[in-house]
Amino acid sequence: MRPDTPAENVDHATEAARLERTAGLYPEDAETLLLRAAAHLELSGDRPAATTLYDRLLSSSAELANPALVRALKASNLWEYGHEAEARAIIEGIRSTAPRDPAPWVIAAEALESHDELEAAAETFTEGARLLIPGPSETPLPATHPLLHGRHRVRRMLALPHDDWDTLADTVHTGPVPLDELHDPKRVWSLGSDNPAELEAEISRLRAELGAYRAALSRPFPVAVLHWPAPELEELLTAYPTLSTEYPSHTEHLATIETSLRELAASGTPNLGIVTGTVPSYEAFAASEATSPTDPTLLPQYATTLAARGRAVAWPPGEGAGCWCGVGRPYQECHGGPEV
């Protein structure tokens, strides 16, 4: 499916089948590809088939990058076609294991919210926020914003007063319409108003809300720069010595990555990331493109393909996170310092 294909023109069942076949060709990316396939099956209405894919991932011998996310998606899907008890049990299990990624918390809480379990949804959003955000006076990472926004929305529906976390949600919200207006439970009444001004205001709020949802659901792959760990780069240059013109040394390679990303950021390029290459993967990609691995123009194509398959890590790392180069030091004390 092309990225610009309108949603209404997508054959979800066909797209799911294509993604399943692709997962068979690239087992290292099976988790990302099968989750996308399951999403298409849900959209096609074949929820039992989607559950089968979630179970396939959870029972796989391969280690999952985010098993809590898979379980949360399975719970949300199960609840939609009558398996409420099992869904509740899975959600409670997620809460008890306290995953360190915001996505499972958001999905579990939204599943509760969509079935009018507002108190439980608010508790789940709050648990996730307290676990993953240092405090209501701290600047949260962008990935945690949906926790704050969801919590704010549910608390408004429960008519609870603003607290420090709600204030933080207001602070990180960047839309043209304030969260209090977007999450106002009384908004539904304005849709039946005879007042043109009220209707225009509600249309404006709905457009802002739709824009926020589109931003949340649109997960474009990053503009990615290719990173070779030292052992992989040594193996690459041993096998294909002509590529040494691209990589004079590993130290220079790492410095070039950071410099390139900083230049892209300064030019206003959004959504930057780093993908890590391996020689077998690169050779397989070259074979699929019917191109020699010695061709340097293949390297950026390989990076883009890895990013499109969900292999990119966002740059720059968050505050206190380890450096992308893998040496184990904090980013700010390594390549994130003033001098690269």
What does this structure look like?
The chain is mainly alpha-helical and 340 residues long. It is 58% helix and 4% strand. It is built from 16 helices and three strands. It has a three-stranded mixed sheet with strand order 1-2-3, sandwiched between helices. α3 (47-58) runs antiparallel to α4 (67-80). The model is unreliable at 1-7 (pLDDT under 50).
What is the percent of helical residues?
55-70%
Strand segment tally: 3
User: Mean pLDDT across all residues, rounded?
Assistant: 84
| Strand content bin | under 5%
- Figure out the total of helices: 16
The global form is globular
Identify the strand order in the major beta sheet.
1-2-3
Distance between the termini: 40 Å
The description of the largest β-sheet is: 3 strands, mixed
Structure class? mainly alpha
Uncertain stretches: 1-7
Radius of gyration: 23 Å
Give, in order, the helices and strands. HHHHHHHHHHHHEHHEHHE
